[in-house]
Amino acid sequence: MHVLTVDTSSAYVVAGIVEIPESDPRALNTVSERIVDNPRGHMELLTPNIVDCLAEAGLEPEELSAVVVGAGPGPFTGLRVGMATAQAFGDALSIPVHGVESLAAIAATSELTEVLVLTDARRREWYGGHYRKDGDTLFAVEGPFVDKPDVIMARQGVETPIIVAKSLADHEALAGSEIADRDALPTPQGLVRAALLTNGGFTAASARTLLTPGEPLRALYLRRPDAVEPKAKPVSSALDFGAMAEDGDQGGVEQEEELRTVRLDQSAAAEMEEIERDLFAEDSPWSLEGIRAELSAVNTHYIGIRRDGQLLGYLGLAKNGPSDDPEWEIHTVAVRREAQGLGLSHRLMVEALRKVDGIGGQVFLEVRTNNAPAVGLYERYGFRAVGVRKNYYQPSGADAYVMVRPSFGGEGEAVAAEIQRDATPPASAEGVRDTRGMIILGVESSCDETGVGIVELTHDNAAGQEVDGPCRVRMISNRVASSMTQHARFGGVVPEIASRAHLEAMVPTMRQALRDLRADRAARGLPTSAFDKPDAVAATVGPGLAGALLVGAAAAKAYAAAWKVPFYGVNHLGGHVAVDLLVTEDSEGREEHAAPGDLDNAIALLVSGGHTQILHVRGVGKPMEEMGGTLDDAAGEAYDKVARLLGLGYPGGPIIDKLAAKGNAKAISFPRAMMRQQDARYDFSFSGLKTAVARYVETAEREGRTIPIEDVCASFQEAVCDVLTAKAVRAAKDVGATTMLLGGGVSANSRLRGLLLQRCKSAGIYLHIPPFALCTDNGVMIAALAAQVIAAGAQPSGLDVDTDPSLEVEIPVVAGRE
């Protein structure tokens, strides 16, 4: 079998293909590798180097059997590029991904039986790990850890041979120590060796474990984020919260309960019956007696997931036939309705298949033919439909697919690879199938939302050349995972926490979006197996938080490479404009088209926590001109700071908007900055407004006055919205634009929407605002922008494109170096 290896935990960009011979796993063969010393080149080099390794090895992506990735420890930013890339490759190809300690990968290639591995942790600190080999086993005596060089050497002594990274070789703390290697790094073969030596050694059984789902991928950071939770400031006694308390508005964020995977016994029968009755009411749900019989059968194994004591879901597995050649059957998979969408079915399947693959054997199951999400889930684990049982579910009479997953290892591995190839539809060099539409997937990770969206692009020209008139872009999926609750206690977005959250959320969010794609195809009478992947992948490459951008863009490039489709690196701000042209559906499934307007000469007002800009739009997907922007705080940032000042928590926008609706916007005359004739016509400043709110509250407290919190919120909000709308309408009049677009997270604000609509009507300007779900950051807007630039004939970015946290609005799609 062939294993893809990746490591970016050090200054080196490491990629390679390692062959594990089935007859002798000890005889590892590095078929191809790329090892480049470039500490700032992980993003540009990694995925192109993987593609080069595959080409040199003469392999297609779907011929890979597993992925092994160095999980660190290592500097945060570079480490996440490798891990995001590895897990995306594995997910795209439906193959397992295994993380190993990068320090263990270094130790695994050493001839020494005991070694201390040291690498650069920056900040004048080292990463370290003390490893020992015992036959075909490698284990950590201590570590991995991070500490000051002198502290590490004092603790370890000088007896153990040391392997060090090149940058540490001449450090004074190593004086007198035996240095066995002065340029240590994780190599492709070292990564595979570590995976085998920490899991049974060089045996066929150990090698087969690489074909089964591993433990959840976790980066070894060893350091906590630098963010410090701010001390709570005393709330002014001048603020009256009486009306707010009466309405039951409460601050704070609930802490997510821990999920536990357990084996179920008779004590779970009653809860299982409750779930059965709710989910399968139309098809004779199992009785309590039937459930008890299942739980007590000698050949069944039931797995459950609990949270805070409550059973959220379960899976039933049965082992049939002789022990040396068993067959398995999944009897049921059930998840409470309120817990669906949390990835619990995936978690249950991983646990079940880990048990199956530890023994071997085929797995069978039945599933409704019209249950596209479930069919998609099973296909991702190597199941294929081999028949249909008519009227299987009673009394509804619904049909069932019979699906089978081959035994992994040996012939089973080849069969699984064949299934994967058969499910891959052909695509042209341009990535466009035909006039049925081009499927484009977008990834967004510029701040604290992990977004994956899918759209369908249709027009009269299937070759992708520029066409007359607007194309049609229909939304298929919009999946977003937000890490906002993790930032709440810090009072704002913490870049490091956002980056970590993106790495954890990317694959689950991607899988949800792809299930939506299958469901959409099934609903339109198209074969789901032929449309389970996109024709192009796009990602935000800027502007945004540097670390957050890297995770999403690295993952998106890996998905594109694994699926062999073009990649487009696009502008986040342009996405907020492109989303206005989407065709969406209302709550009853009716199509809603973006209202007409002149988008060859339009004004876009983008308002969020990171951006407040007036843009001159000269066609969606074309370069835009920034006419004005904030000179200090963005509008959303001002909302957050004022909310913190008033003791309202984070995020500030929604709670201030809610309270403002009950207050008097004329109660307090807060200043409108940058509105004098001599000021810049289109620029904003909100830092002074925040200071004015603070001083007003302080003065009221000093004078012994009380003021309703609702009036403070309403007056502050009016000052913000007054300036935003006045300058946006002014810009439209100055350029003769008759269309106004509103986007960004703050565009969900009710007063901003209402006041801008009022002023646009008075000026004869058409205002278009996207649905609430598309106002905040999301992957749909990225896919929508990519659709527009593709329709206009733009070339793909290439896989070597980098991210740019300060990307200018004039650049809708970023070109690579290829």
TrEMBL record:
CDD domains: ASKHA_NBD_TsaB, NAT_SF. Its cofactor is Fe(2+). It catalyses: L-threonylcarbamoyladenylate + adenosine(37) in tRNA = N(6)-L-threonylcarbamoyladenosine(37) in tRNA + AMP + H(+). GO terms for cellular component: cytosol. Fe cation binds at residues 572, 576, 777. GO terms for molecular function: iron ion binding; N-acetyltransferase activity; tRNA N(6)-L-threonylcarbamoyladenine synthase activity. GO terms for biological process: tRNA threonylcarbamoyladenosine modification. The keyword Coiled coil does not apply. It is an enzyme of class 2 (transferase). Pfam families: Acetyltransf_1, TsaD. Binds 1 Fe(2+) ion per subunit. Required for the formation of a threonylcarbamoyl group on adenosine at position 37 (t(6)A37) in tRNAs that read codons beginning with adenine. Is involved in the transfer of the threonylcarbamoyl moiety of threonylcarbamoyl-AMP (TC-AMP) to the N6 group of A37, together with TsaE and TsaB. TsaD likely plays a direct catalytic role in this reaction. Belongs to the KAE1 / TsaD family. This is tRNA N6-adenosine threonylcarbamoyltransferase.
